[in-house]
Amino acid sequence: MKILDRYILVTFLRTFVSIFIIFMFIFVLQGLWLYISELAGKDLDFITTLKFIFFYSPKLIPLVVPLTVLLSSIMVFGNFAENYEFAAMKSTGISLQRAMRSLSIFIVALGFACFFFANNVIPWGEYNFYNLRRNIAKVKPALAIAEGQFNDIGNINIKVDKKSGDRGQYLEKVIIHQKKSVKRGNYTVIVAENGELKSDEDSNILELELTNGNYYDELVSRDIRKFNKRKPHAQSQFKTYTINIDLGKLNSIDMDEKNTDDRFSMQDVSDLNYTIDSLFKEREKDYKTLSTSLYNRSTYANLKTDIKAENDSVYNTDLLDMFNTKSKIQILGLALNTANSTTQIIKTNKRTFDAKTGNRNRHILALHEKYALGFACVILFFVGAPLGALIRKGGIGLPMVIAILLFLTYHFIGIFLKNNAKSDALNPILATWLSTLIMLPLSVYLTYRATNDRGLINLDVITVPLKKLFTFKSKSQINEIKNVQSYSYYNKHSIEELIQVVKHQNEFDLDKKPKQIALQHLSDRGIQLVDMENQGLDIPINIKIAKTELKDYIDYSTTSLVTYSIGAITLILHFVFKNNKLPELAEIVKTLSFISFGIFILYVIVSTFYYTKFYTSIGQSKKRVNPLVILLGLPFYPFKYYFLKVKTKEDFHLSCLEEIK
């Protein structure tokens, strides 16, 4: 491996590992928050909590790794472009593809590793995570009940004031609301002084034994008027009352809202292929069973079909007219009941078939997600690397915003398609791959633009006429300097002569502003502050600091403008999709809009901070922005952005003209 390849690979790996750890930590915290009701105040020991986190972590890899690849590639190649390292590479004949060669091999290897991880480690983690939760609920019954709040367990809602015992099995002041399948509501209330949780490790039944309590039950009646008027109920006292809770149901209630379909996540490729094949065969068998059942109900087999049909030229009336009225009623009633019964059977079987189809599609999605993960890493790398080279900006600011917006778009498209596939509205194979395939043309386009040293998007055709249209003539001190009669006299001076004018300004007529005019000419000729300092001019330290702060302010305000534009566009799309009765797309773009506006507000605050620091550095601290003005100006941020960008650059330029010596 050559030194250049090693340098690029090591730089990328450092960034990749750092970002991976940060994102993994964030998503693990989000997972803990998701299961906080099961972990907080449940007397879990430290080792059990670590196992909980450890078994939960593998399922985060399909979310964390693609996002890490995208952000790392944008940051690394953005840093290379910002620090002119790419320019140095290209000057020696090294193209972008050559610079990406070592990383491309690493990303392909990472894609294969992701497949093997998804095929082996994630099912293992899911299996252990599910069983750990089940075992915690059995061995530690107190896990299911927290003090001082109602806890939904099976068909009861239970609240206890205090728990005690080595496993939290002893309860004090127990209140239970027992649910009924007949009608929704709390019609049965049990209050007891004490209770004890009992269970065996080999049993799925949790036994709750209550002592010294009261049982109150409202007798639900179909006649609502009589029920509301009389309010019939039954009340009794007990010394001991036992309730059995099925822990198997407890564990299947909130497994990421999957109910029984969480089992597919515990299977590898071979198991999924076998299960999918079995589900297809089971569907064919169910169809045959239903068709046979409907055929037998029609009693067609009992008809005498060997009778030769002959037309009767005499009888031309309706067939029912052959029967009397009573027989007609019986025949029509029988036909109607048969039709209704058959319709009900078909509807019931349709619901069953839909559920089984959804379960089958979830297995297909799980199978192809294992393959799609590796391809997603490769394609997102070829999106991020050229994008970083094009935007020429490293660090956490703008690359973070772009990476998150791109990944959210990719992720929400995937969620939308997979949700449709679960309901069989879309082919599950297409739903798994489509979000990745959408990113493929983008990766090809960005790589082509970066290879040919073209900008991300050529907006000059639009922006140049707009700038000419909205550019106003400044009546500032710069125009006053240019309007001095001696200004044109310095046009013939060389750069060295202008430098000498600045150094020896006292030898000239100060009323004619020789230093300011000379510095303005140097600026018009594109001479930077670094070049002036190399020529012997004194650049004050506050001017150097102000230059850095001005650059930071413009960068953050530009990011604010980008996120504002994305938020506004997605908000408009939300109403468009909502009016066109596309609720899922409307929710997706609304979420993107809220995220964009949230990032926009954050960067407005940061840019305001640098705005204040900039004016403090150039000695104009009175020009701080009023918070009320910031708040009122948020809806009109593009106009504010353009105005303040021009104004800050002008004020910095005037400070340079005054303070450089």
Overview of the molecule:
64% of the residues lie in helices and 9% in strands. The protein has 661 residues and is an alpha+beta fold. Among the domains are: 3-137 and 367-451, no CATH class; 145-253, no CATH class. It has a 6-stranded antiparallel β-sheet with strand order 1-2-3-4-5-6. Helix 12 packs antiparallel against helix 13 (428-451), helix 12 (397-422) packs antiparallel against helix 20 and helix 19 runs antiparallel to helix 20 (583-617). The longest helix is centred in the middle third of the chain and has 67 residues, at 325-391. The two termini are 51 Å apart. Mean pLDDT is 76; it is low at 250-262 and 469-475.
Q: What labels would you give this structure?
A:
22 helices, 6 strands, 661 residues, 6-stranded antiparallel beta sheet, single chain, alpha+beta
Give the tally of β-strands: 6
User: What fraction of residues sit in β-strands?
Assistant: 5-15%
Radius of gyration: 37 Å
Helix-strand pattern, N to C? HHHHHHHEEEEEHEHHHHHHHHHHHHHH
pLDDT below 50 for ≥5 consecutive residues: which ranges?
A: 250-262, 469-475
Provide mean pLDDT, rounded: 76
Helix content: 55-70%
Major sheet attributes: 6 strands, antiparallel
Structural class, judged by helices and strands?
alpha+beta
Cross-sheet strand order for the largest sheet: 1-2-3-4-5-6
User: What's the total helix number?
Assistant: 22
Cα separation of the termini? 51 Å
**Tertiary shape:** elongated
